[in-house]
Amino acid sequence: MRCWRSSATARARTATAGSPTARRSSSATPRRPPSATGSSTSCSTPTERDRQFDELLKRSLDSIGVRLEIQKERFPELLKLEKQCRLMTHMAAWIADYPDGDNFMQLLYGPNTHESNNACYRSKEFDRRYEKSRRLADGPERDRLYHEMTRRMEVDTVWLLADSRIRNALQQPHVVGFTKHPVLHAEWLYIDLDPRNGH
After folding, report:
1. Where are the domains of the chain?
2. CB 68 within 8 A of CB 57
3. What are phi and psi of 68, to 5 degrees?
4. SS3 139
5. Phi and psi dihedrals of 69, rounded to 5?
């Protein structure tokens, strides 16, 4: 799999794959570009963040001649559609619940469809490697399987990794014990206030 860096190249590759967009110039009958109906968390709620994600995705697909229709849904309804495998495209965020590669690979394991496999992805090659990785301790052999599963996911284009989010934390001088953990989000367990600062 190659990542096409220019919209002209991506448009040409889309045409080679059978998109009617490329044939439009040689055809007397105008055709609509191929469409992907998108329903995603980024467009499920009326927030500024969601609107920006929608615009970014639409602008990107427009540049290669693919029409995107955004389907708006309330978040609970979106989750139901997701579990029923009724979404064609979907934008979502994920962080590690626990510091291990399995936390990500289980999201693509076929039997987890309708549970944590929200992409509804099924691949015998991926599943076989995942099942083998579950029987291994942390080490080079399991790492190799994770790399192979990642490559399989990339080739099948199950996920398109779009962005990495940055979080900022502001700490007042009288707060004691705050240290941001890369995985855990319950830092409040370790936070206290210093009474010597007048609080």
Report:
1. 25-93, 97-158, 167-199
2. yes
3. -115, 130
4. coil
5. -105, 120
| DSSP code for 72 | P
Query: If 0-12 CB within 10 Å is exposed, 13-18 middle and 19+ buried, where does residue 57 land?
Result: buried
| Burial grade of 13 (CB within 10 A; 0-12, 13-18, 19 or more) | middle
The dihedral of CA 40, 41, 43, 48: what is its sign? negative
pLDDT tens digits for 153-181? 999 988 888 777 788 888 888 899 888 87
> How big, in percent rounded to 5, are the helix, strand and coil portions of the chain?
45, 10, 50
- The model's pTM: 0.71
At 101, is the secondary structure helix, strand, or coil? coil
